């Protein structure tokens, strides 16, 4: 699938802000045999006094910007063309859960894709007893690691209600778990903690999801949004798979990857600091448009 992406992210301040320094992660990745960033651009208004590109630990393309002078709003626009390849259906060569620790121990690499980075607590995902108890039912089953990952994905999709008003970006997984409501970030964070509590390496994926309007309805421009799903390490042979608990599906050609991390804090699309007071209003609009070939 070939897509044209466009994103508008705006911050409107109650009072002019200054000394704003931000890191922006919005451009899709190029991933071997998965997806290719053909072209992409990032525009920031007001024009930054300083702007530089770098790759973070997880090898994501990130942009650092600095706006010194007072400004009433910050406007970020991204455009990209991305080719996403369909993935073959892989056989389940993952080990039983009891055998997975041996395969983790046999992995000596500590590169960004190493499972060792995705086993322990991370900044937004502390150990949570309630979620560990929720996943304990799979600990004594005779299922493979991959089967358990799919089962937890399905269970979260069944037990949780998608509700964009129930949580915010700062809602903790424990709070979302008690509510059994939330958005893709909440679904993904709960699933990651559940998997890690069983000793299964799991991480957070930030990206875009192509949405299809209901039959008879026109597609609304700008109605799409950024999305999140889960990456699961299923042993040395099976490697990493990606599951979307919000929709209870494996990530496919409608999922476009921007960044991988341990949790949302590693992949936040915009993060930073500024001098100011009062509150701010955030606006966001995303278009994921298939290109006819």
TrEMBL record:
On the tree of life, the source organism's domain of life is Bacteria
Name the Gene Ontology molecular function terms of this record. peptidase activity
> InterPro entries under this entry?
Bac_transglu_N (IPR013589), Papain-like_cys_pep_sf (IPR038765), Transglutaminase-like (IPR002931)
Which terms under GO biological process does the entry name?
A: proteolysis
**All residue ranges annotated as the Transglutaminase-like domain in the record:** 176-247
Cite the entry's keywords alphabetically: Hydrolase, Protease
> What is the protein name stated in its UniProt record?
Transglutaminase-like enzyme, putative cysteine protease
Task: Name its species.
Answer: Rhizobium lusitanum
Lineage of source species = Bacteria, Pseudomonadati, Pseudomonadota, Alphaproteobacteria, Hyphomicrobiales
């Amino acid at each position: 699938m070939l897509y044209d992406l466009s994103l508008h992210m705006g911050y409107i301040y109650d009072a002019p802000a200054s000394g704003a320094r931000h890191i922006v992660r919005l451009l899709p990745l190029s991933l071997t045999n998965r997806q290719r960033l053909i072209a992409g651009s990032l525009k920031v208004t007001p024009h930054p006094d300083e702007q530089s590109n770098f790759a973070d630990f997880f090898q994501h393309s990130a942009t650092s910007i600095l706006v010194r002078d007072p400004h009433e709003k910050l406007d970020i626009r991204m455009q990209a063309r991305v080719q996403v390849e369909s993935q073959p259906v892989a056989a389940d060569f993952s080990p039983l859960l009891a055998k997975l620790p041996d395969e983790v121990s046999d992995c000596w690499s500590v590169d960004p894709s190493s499972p060792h980075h995705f086993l322990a607590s991370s900044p937004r995902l502390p150990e949570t007893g309630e979620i560990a108890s929720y996943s304990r039912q799979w600990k004594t089953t005779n299922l493979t690691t991959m089967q358990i990952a799919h089962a937890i994905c399905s269970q979260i999709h069944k037990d949780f209600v998608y509700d964009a008003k129930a949580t915010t970006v700062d809602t903790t997984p424990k709070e979302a778990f008690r509510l059994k409501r939330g958005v893709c970030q909440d679904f993904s964070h709960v699933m990651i903690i559940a998997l890690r509590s069983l000793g299964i390496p799991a991480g957070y994926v930030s990206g875009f999801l192509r949405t299809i309007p209901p039959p008879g309805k026109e597609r609304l421009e700008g109605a799409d949004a950024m999305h999140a799903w889960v990456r699961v390490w299923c042993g040395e042979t099976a490697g990493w798979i990606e599951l979307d608990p919000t929709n209870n599906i494996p990530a496919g050609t409608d999922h476009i990857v921007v960044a991988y991390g341990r949790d949302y804090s590693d992949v936040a699309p915009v993060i930073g600091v500024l001098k100011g007071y009062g509150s701010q209003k955030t606006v966001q609009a995303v278009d994921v448009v298939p290109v006819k070939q």
